[in-house]
Each structure stands twice: as C-alpha cells, then as structure tokens.
Amino acid sequence: MSSKRRILFLTPQLPYPPEQGTAIRNYHLLSQTATRHDVSLLSFVEPGTANLAPLQAICSQVQTIPAPRRTKAQRLKTLLTSRAPDMARRLAAEPYAQALHQMLAQEPYDIVQVEGIELASYGLMIKAWPEAGSPALVFDDHNAEYLLQKRAFGTDIRRPRRWPQAAYSGIQWRRLRHFEHQICHRADAVLTVSEADAQAVRQLGPGIEPLAIPNGVDTEAYRTDLPDSLPLRHPNVVFTGKMDYRPNVDAMRWFHSQVWPEIRRQLPDVHLYIVGKGPSAEILQMADDPGVTVTGYVPDILPYFGGADVYIVPLRVGGGTRLKVLEALATGLPMVSTRLGVEGIALQDGQHALLADTPAEFAQTAVRLLGDGALRQSLAQQARDLAVQRYDWRNIIPPLFSLYDRL
Length: 407
Known about the structure:
By secondary structure, the protein is of the alpha/beta class.
C-alpha cells in the first residue's frame, strides 16, 4: 500500500465551482487525490466569487490570493521589453509568492503540483528557495502551450484582418517554447492531458518524459437520461464553451460564416445555440441572426445537453483534450467535430462521433445526423460507453497515484 503524501496544489483560479475547463480538471484532480493523500491548496481567486466550503471539506488548508489585474499597457510592455511570454507574467503577484513561501516554510510538503503554464514561474521559484525544503515539483501542462500559439499563428496569418493576432502568436509561440522547456526541464515530473500533447512536450528537449493524465468527466452527473427541461427549438445544434476564449470564438466564427448558411439552406427551421459565459462582441453579433441564440452565462449547462439534438465541435485552433467533448460523450450526444476538436480522445469516426473538416463536409454531416434518428441513437450509446470506460475520473487517477509513489 502506498504511503500518504502531503501535496500542495497551486491553481490559477479557484477550482470550485467546477464549471469550465481549468477549474473542472483541477477540482477533480484535487478531490480524487484527497481520497488517498493529504492535500492543501493555494489559489488565485476573483473578488466576490470564493466559495471555500467544498474545498475546505477535502483540503487540510486552503489559502486564496486576489487575482492580479494586468492592463493592456503592462502586457504591451512585456511584449516589447521582455523575452518572457505573456502567459509567464499573467499571474505575477508578490502576495502569491509570499503566501507560497510561507506555506512551504511552515509545512514539510512532499510534493508541490503546479497547475498550468500561468503558474510555472512559481514552480521555478520553489527550486530556488533553500528554505522551501525539497518537495518534488510536478508540473501539469494543461496544454502544449507553444503548439497552441503556433497553430493560432498558422490560422490567423491566412486572414489579413487577423494579422495583428497572428503577429502576437508568432512572437508568443517561440517564447513559450523556451519557457515551457524551462519548467518541464526543472520539474521532477510533467503531466499532460493527452498522449498527443505529451509528444509535443517531448519535442521541447531530451530528458522530458511526460505522463499523460487525460481530462475526465463525472459520468454520474453527465448521463444519458437528462430531461429536455428547456423550451429549446428543434431541430437544433448546440455549442458550449467559454465564449471569449480565442479557439471557441474562432470555431463559431468559422461555423457561422462558412457552415451554418448551408445547414439553414437545407433545414430552414434549424436553430443554433451558443452556450457559455463571456461572449465576445463578435459572438454577440451572431444573435442578430434569428436562427441563433447566444445565451451568455448559464448557471447549469446540463439542461442544454438534455435538449440538444446534435452537438458541434468546429474547433480549428487549440490543443489538449476538450472537456466539453467528454461531457457530450458522457451525455450520449450525437456529435459532429473537426478532427482537431477531438484530438487526444480515443474515439472513432462513425462509431462514437462523426468527423468533418471542410465547411461542406461539416454542413452535410450535420444535416445527415439531424435527419437520421437511428444513427443518432447508435452514436449516443457508443459515446456513453466510451466515456464510462475510458474517461471517468475514477479510472483516470490511478497512474497519478503511482507517480506520487515513485516521487
């Protein structure tokens, strides 16, 4: 039997409530680890959003620091005067460094687990503090960040109106590659969310051997018998996500301009639901289309899964594994996705979902799926089976426990 470790998690945002990608992964890693080890948490938090009780129930100690605010001028200064990537400075805050230093000085932690590239600088600090003791450093790379920005550059450079964004990504991906190499090289262990990301991280340099701990899903909460409790229009297609996140905005820009007109031509009554907080101005403009609803923040995503006819993942930019895809699989939603959208997830085209990469293919596939109830039912059952067998959090966590034992 493995011995109990004292593990300190560092998170860029409070991992409760687990409502979006980073928080979902961090909460489930934290809660599952707490079933076997003694865990503590140091997290940034947005003012007025802290609900610590669920975290205090599973953690020995919870400390929070207000998230810093960086102005556009500060970001521009980093871009022009520093070799560090923007993400390395995004959560730079002396109060967080002081709290981390104090926690390490007071408690003999065995392991410090850094969740994401935005906190990597603090991981490097730990290695430079003799008084921190000698905790093992685990770096959880939620995305192969340099690859994400490199892909964004490749997408935006083809559109003159997006050249400013392309210039930013062109600078950032090279800086991120260097910074990611630094933290991965100094860490005692590196985690990624997929084997595809692990392969990208291995390219950073010799000796870096990540362990893939996939994103997962709570298959008891996301299930196939969700009621259709909202007055959604049918037939419909549904997309969910944080709608100021660049890959999601790009996905819906492409879908609404290149794919949606052909779907509407063949199915005039079809309706598109774009569900998620923080919609950008560009996303909000899509609501001018009478066939489109932009919800903004919703307190519970499950009713939209319950009322969806077809779930779409038209992503063309990004990396990692998308928690939205795992949630849709667990809910048994018939899905149409680009291949990039399901990258890192062990699903088969035609068995668990339908894949399409060009506008014409995506539109025809969506129309076909909306019109074929038997196909939707077949995909739904096999999608659910895959989620339960491969991506339930309880089945994902054991390799991480083995890593802790080795450390």
